[in-house]
Automatic annotation (TrEMBL):
Pathway: Amino-acid biosynthesis; L-arginine biosynthesis; L-arginine from L-ornithine and carbamoyl phosphate: step 3/3. CDD domains: Argininosuccinate_lyase. Its EC number is 4.3.2.1. Belongs to the lyase 1 family. Argininosuccinate lyase subfamily. This is Argininosuccinate lyase. PANTHER family: ARGININOSUCCINATE LYASE (PTHR43814). GO terms for molecular function: argininosuccinate lyase activity. It comes from Hyella patelloides LEGE 07179.
């Protein structure tokens, strides 16, 4: 414990080796290096513009920073734990390259506003990427929907057969969820797009800096109004994790449906070999690992949201080292959401086949047309509640006789109520049942076509 560290002469000796490891964030914040370099270039330019350093010094700093970028990209810059974090690692290397000029870079800023800038630049880029992934996910769903407007699938409430649906309508529900996710991320972007650079350690700086200028160079829309808030705010990160969690909720619900659909009990889809796995002992098995993993990974994203909320809740102003704990969860959430969106997009585009024969028979062999019998009577003037009760009795006796509604003879129908005519058979066929639900946003084929067209034009924007 004799070697000196980055710290000022106030410190006599280096950190205990175990504490150095405990304290260091370089193992994960190296992920931010590109943004750290970009942020530093902007800071150096601002220092020159305001006359705090010379133009020549700023140019040297920029060249030094770009050299580090090249070294990093070529795998030649691998700072260890002794660098503590990415910010110190870069500054140390810069001083090795430039000598005393390198030591001028940190004028008028602190690692507190620096790390805040880095994480915002990182999230801005990643939010845009995730939005692109969402668009691809939506367009694959849209494609599937377009090809399956007249494919029918049982619709459920309480996981009990309810009313048959257009498969496209079912898929389009997820397009809508993803649309809200896309919009929500756009909203998060607004509050991520604010620059804390120049807030200093907590109170601003004595140098005549130009925060608007560095913010503009970095593509930020505005700057934090209050320096304490600027260095300690992580609302945008929590908002991002909320948005990420909701994306995972939607992916997880779709996953759950696909897992059910792939089971022998449902048998609505088959998994293609490219997206399914086998068992090490049961040769007959083909497992839906992709949706299962997505469902499972949802838990870790929720965990990151919860963790950051708890990290923040007791923090006094302004920066506290607790904030170093924000990064790993954010990085992991970004990677998890992108990985899950990509895997689900592949699964939907080439990993599943809808079993049309099975779907056709599924919708034809249940009582999910019972509402339509009641509606039929109601259109002929029978009050709906009375019709509903009559049909309930019919379902009960049919079940006892092992019959479906379509198996009743016209005499049987007319015994139930004289209003029944031979058009009842057409009225309760699955296709009619679905296409008749032509109310706005319903599953009727005409409505589904409108929904697909609307979503397509939305996606073009
Ligand atoms: N590694 C630190 C973090 O991730 C950087 C900021 C450190 N600031 C400080 N005052 N110790 O939060």
């Amino acid at each position: 414990m004799t070697k000196k560290t980055t710290w000022s002469d106030r410190f006599e000796s280096a950190l205990h080796p175990a504490i150095a490891i405990f304290n260091a964030s370089i193992g994960f914040d190296i992920e931010l290096i590109e943004y750290d370099l970009t942020g530093s270039v902007a800071h150096a330019k601002m220092l020159a513009k305001t006359g705090i350093i010379s133009e020549e010094e700023a140019q040297q700093l920029e060249q030094g920073l770009e050299k580090i970028r090249q070294e990093y990209r070529q795998g030649e810059f691998n700072p260890g734990v002794d660098a503590e974090d990415v910010h110190f690692a870069v500054e140390r290397r810069l001083t090795e390259i430039l000598g005393d000029v390198g030591k001028k870079l940190h004028t008028g800023r602190s690692r507190n506003d620096q790390v805040g800038t880095d994480i915002r630049l990182y999230l801005k880029a990643e939010i845009n990427e995730i939005r692109t992934y969402l668009r691809e996910f939506q367009s694959v769903l849209l494609n599937l929907a377009e090809n399956n407007i007249e494919t029918l699938i049982p619709g459920y409430t309480h996981l009990q057969r309810a009313q048959p649906l257009s498969l496209a309508h079912h898929l389009m529900a997820y397009v809508q969820m993803a649309q809200r996710d896309w919009e929500r991320l756009g909203d998060v972007l607004k509050r991520t797009n604010i620059s804390p650079l120049g807030c200093g350690a907590l109170a601003g700086t004595t140098f005549p800096i130009d925060r608007h200028y560095s913010a503009e160079l970095l593509g930020f829309e505005s700057i934090y109004e209050n320096s304490l808030d600027g260095v300690s705010d992580r609302d945008f990160a929590i908002e991002f994790l909320c948005a990420a969690s909701l994306i995972m909720v939607h992916l997880s619900r779709l996953s759950e449906e696909m897992i059910l659909w792939a089971s022998e009990e449902f048998n609505f889809i088959s998994l293609k070999d490219s997206c399914a796995t086998g068992s090490s002992i049961m040769p007959q098995k083909k497992n839906p690992d992709v949706p299962e993993l997505v469902r499972g990974k949802t838990g870790r994203v929720f965990g990151h949201l919860q963790a950051l909320l708890v990290i923040m809740k007791g923090l006094p102003l302004a920066y506290n080292k607790d904030l170093q704990e924000d990064k790993e969860g954010i990085f992991d959430a970004v990677k998890t959401v992108k990985g899950c969106l990509e895997a689900m997009t592949i699964l939907l585009s080439e990993g599943i086949i809808f079993n049309q024969t099975r779907l056709n028979s599924a919708v034809a062999e249940d009582f999910s047309n019972a509402t339509d019998v009641a509606d039929y009577l109601a259109t002929k003037g029978v009050p709906f509640r009375e019709a509903y009760n009559l049909v309930g009795k019919v379902v009960k006796t049919s079940l006892a006789q092992g019959k479906l509604l379509k198996d009743l003879t016209i005499e049987e129908w007319q015994q139930i109520h004289p209003a029944f005519a031979t058009d009842i058979y057409e009225a309760i066929s699955p296709k009619t049942v679905v296409s008749a639900r032509n109310s706005y946003g319903g599953t009727g084929f005409e409505q589904v076509k409108i929904a697909i067209a609307n979503a397509k034009s939305e996606l073009k924007q």
